[in-house]
């Protein structure tokens, strides 16, 4: 049957026939048409689809039609998202519905990273040697729970567990490429990971997250691809692509990770670990030497950090003694040689340990020697949950565009990037987004929202607010007063979005007594609650205020009267002294550009559009967005922020009113 996207999504289409509450959206049909065109021609496409367009149907329908049409050259499409909530929507709601209305058979699956699956062989081993592995009774108890779960689970993945296991336990039982015996594994026929991989290999639509997609992209050069071959990729929530790609193309090594790796081999305090189980005395002695070398190295790095700028950035290679790298390689060689004398399963464990040690040593060398060009290197210090200081060695590519151009955009694949926020002006300029990801030539389409923003939302901008740069204390005090005013008007039902934890905490301290007096609840991201848990509590208790930072500016969906008020404390400019941001601004400056106009401003505009987008999620939603930062009125660039937002009534309201 010859079908088009219009046959499915049009006013007389199959979706309309199925849904009694169907509302025709021209933008959705238009999106499906350009996506179908990009798939057919295997060409890049950028689509900004405003909130309410229903962009998931706008790309899923043409993707499903393409993979089920034998006349096309599209056999498999990868759909990548940034947030778990969108993944769940696609897999639990959108794809099953489309499967029921599109008269073609197709397969769609969620692809997960290997570490999400339990290894039955490793689980057996962990049970056998648990007395030499684990330091706490709670860990052995949880291992028993995992063993019982593994007998009944259908898929053997973390998502089917009713709790999140401790990393110290899961790391001993999860599927691991370096610890895999392949066809020689005695549990190969029952392996959950290989069963999942076979299902993924047959799927026509694969749903993944950006982290997995870009990890796969990075590994393809060394022949270690995670995903099967595909003909097209649809990157939803594409405004996050630069950040996620940068994270997965960079490097991060911490003192805590090294300590954890060595403790798994031998913990001299508890006399536990792999080398204790195998009675490998020489290995235990080598671990102790590595610990001393690690202590010396991180002490030197701590001293080095005190000579660096506050952001810890290294602008040139540093000459410091690194005895840890050679010590780790020597330990790896000992482990590998010792493994050669053992039976296959134990040999595999020791070879896997050797590979990990070699990998850490190579990363230390690469960081010290700064082997990658166009990369920024820095030191970051923090404190772990136990209050112990941790030092992290970091690197990231300054510009991911060149890498994405080579590994993604130059391939013979259809690449479709979509989000509600990709352009930086009302005229639909995608230049900033495309330049940041290295996409020099593509069809770019801006589709407006079907929502009636003039009737549904207002933008309130207080006048007379102090300047946040020149009068910081006065500005934050005025913000608290304005937050109280607008929270009281809507009796809670408010998000307050911040650009820093510091301002969030200061505001929270000042709000709590007033909220207590008004009998309003507060949910603060500073309390450490998971985002999902905060959202659920907020939805159940509308008479509340939620204080959030970066992760609440995007990917959060609270439709209905539970959210009537979004207060944005400051315009979301990135901190210019963060090492990666600083390096990007340096490159722009050195090439004759203007760092503020070319990077900071357009990036902040996109993020403000994301924050605004939290308010109106359905055609019946209503409310107002309050922007407390006076620079949106007092600075010439403020007009660009307002022009990029949906067409709403703008209300100027005096602070002293």
Protein described:
α6 runs antiparallel to α8. It is built from 27 helices and 18 strands. By secondary structure, it is of the alpha/beta class. 48% of the residues lie in helices and 14% in strands. The chain starts with a helix and ends with a strand. β14, α23 and β15 form a beta-alpha-beta unit. It has four domains: 25-111 and 203-231 and 413-447, Rossmann fold (3-Layer(aba) Sandwich), CATH 3.40.50; 114-197, no CATH class; 246-397, Up-down Bundle (Four Helix Bundle (Hemerythrin (Met), subunit A)); 453-654, P-loop containing nucleotide triphosphate hydrolases (Rossmann fold). A seven-stranded parallel beta sheet has the order 3-4-2-5-10-1-11.
The CATH C-level name of the largest domain is: Alpha Beta
The percentage helix is 40-55%
* Record field, number of beta strands: 18
The proportion of strand residues reads 5-15%
- CATH A-level architecture of the largest domain: 3-Layer(aba) Sandwich
Q: Determine the CATH superfamily of the largest domain.
A: P-loop containing nucleotide triphosphate hydrolases
Number of structural units classed as domains? 4
What's the gyration radius in Å?
27 Å
Low-pLDDT residue spans: none
Shape annotation: globular
Mean pLDDT: 93
CATH fold group of the largest domain: Rossmann fold
Largest sheet: 7 strands, parallel
User: What gap, in angstroms, lies between the N and C termini?
Assistant: 65 Å
Structural class: alpha/beta
> What is the count of DSSP helices, taking H or I runs of 4+ residues?
27
Lateral arrangement of strands in the main beta sheet: 3-4-2-5-10-1-11
């Amino acid at each position: 049957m010859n079908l088009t996207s219009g046959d499915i999504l049009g006013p007389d289409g199959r979706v309309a026939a199925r849904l009694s509450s169907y509302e025709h959206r021209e933008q959705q049909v238009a999106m499906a048409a350009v996506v179908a065109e990009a798939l057919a021609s295997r060409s890049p496409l950028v689509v900004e689809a405003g909130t309410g367009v229903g962009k998931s149907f706008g790309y899923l329908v043409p993707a499903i039609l393409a993979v089920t049409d034998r006349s096309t050259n599209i056999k498999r499409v990868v759909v990548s998202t940034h947030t778990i909530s969108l993944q769940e929507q696609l897999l639990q709601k959108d794809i099953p519905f489309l499967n029921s209305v599109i008269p073609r058979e197709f397969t769609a699956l969620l692809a997960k990273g290997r570490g999400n699956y339990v290894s039955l062989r490793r689980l057996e081993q962990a049970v056998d040697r648990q007395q030499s592995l684990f330091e706490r009774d709670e860990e052995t108890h949880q291992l028993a729970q995992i063993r019982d779960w593994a007998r009944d689970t259908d898929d053997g993945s973390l998502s089917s567990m009713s709790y999140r296991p401790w990393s110290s336990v899961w790391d001993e039982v999860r599927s691991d490429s370096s610890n895999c015996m392949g066809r020689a594994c005695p549990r190969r026929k029952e392996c959950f990971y290989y069963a999942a991989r076979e299902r993924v290999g047959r799927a026509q639509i694969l749903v993944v997250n950006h982290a997995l997609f870009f990890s796969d992209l990075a590994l393809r050069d060394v022949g270690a691809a995670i995903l099967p071959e595909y003909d097209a990729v649809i990157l939803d929530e594409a405004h996050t692509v630069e950040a996620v790609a940068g994270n997965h193309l960079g490097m991060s090594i911490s003192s805590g990770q090294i300590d954890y790796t060595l403790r798994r081999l031998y913990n001299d305090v508890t006399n536990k670990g792999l080398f204790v189980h195998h009675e490998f005395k020489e290995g235990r002695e080598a671990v102790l030497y590595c610990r001393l070398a690690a202590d010396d190295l991180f002490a030197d790095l701590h001293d080095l950090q005190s000579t660096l700028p506050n952001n810890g950035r290294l602008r040139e290679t540093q000459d410091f003694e690194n005895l840890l790298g050679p010590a780790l390689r020597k330990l790896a060689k000992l482990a590998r040689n010792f493994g050669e004398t053992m039976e296959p399963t134990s040999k595999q464990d020791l070879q896997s340990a050797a590979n990990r040690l070699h990998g850490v040593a190579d990363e230390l060398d690469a960081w010290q020697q700064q082997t990658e060009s166009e990369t920024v290197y820095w030191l970051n210090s923090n404190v772990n949950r136990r209050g112990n200081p941790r030092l992290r060695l970091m690197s990231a590519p300054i510009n991911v565009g060149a890498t994405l151009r080579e590994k993604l955009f130059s391939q013979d694949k259809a690449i479709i990037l979509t989000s509600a926020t990709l352009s930086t002006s009302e005229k639909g300029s995608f230049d900033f987004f495309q330049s940041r990801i290295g996409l020099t030539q593509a069809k770019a389409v801006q589709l407006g929202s079907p929502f009636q923003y003039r009737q549904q939302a207002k933008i309130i901008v207080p006048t007379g607010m102090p300047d946040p740069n020149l009068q910081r204390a006065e500005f934050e005090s005025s913000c608290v007063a304005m937050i109280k005013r607008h929270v009281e008007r809507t009796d809670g039902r408010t998000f307050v979005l911040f650009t820093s934890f510091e301002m969030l905490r200061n505001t929270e301290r000042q709000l709590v007594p007033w909220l207590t007096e008004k009998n309003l609840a507060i949910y603060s991201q500073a309390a450490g609650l998971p985002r999902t848990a905060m959202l659920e509590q907020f939805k159940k208790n509308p008479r509340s205020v939620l204080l959030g930072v970066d992760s609440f500016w995007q990917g959060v969906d609270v439709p209905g009267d539970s959210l009537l008020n979004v207060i944005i404390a400051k315009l979301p400019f990135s901190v210019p002294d963060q090492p990666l941001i600083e390096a990007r601004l340096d490159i722009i400056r050195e090439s004759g550009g203007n760092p503020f106009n070319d990077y900071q401003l357009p990036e902040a505009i996109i993020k403000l559009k994301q924050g605004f987008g939290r308010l109106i999620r359905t055609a019946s939603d209503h409310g107002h967005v309050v922007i407390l930062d006076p620079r949106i009125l007092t600075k010439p660039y403020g007009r660009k922020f307002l022009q990029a937002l949906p067409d709403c009534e703008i209300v100027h309201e005096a602070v002293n009113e």
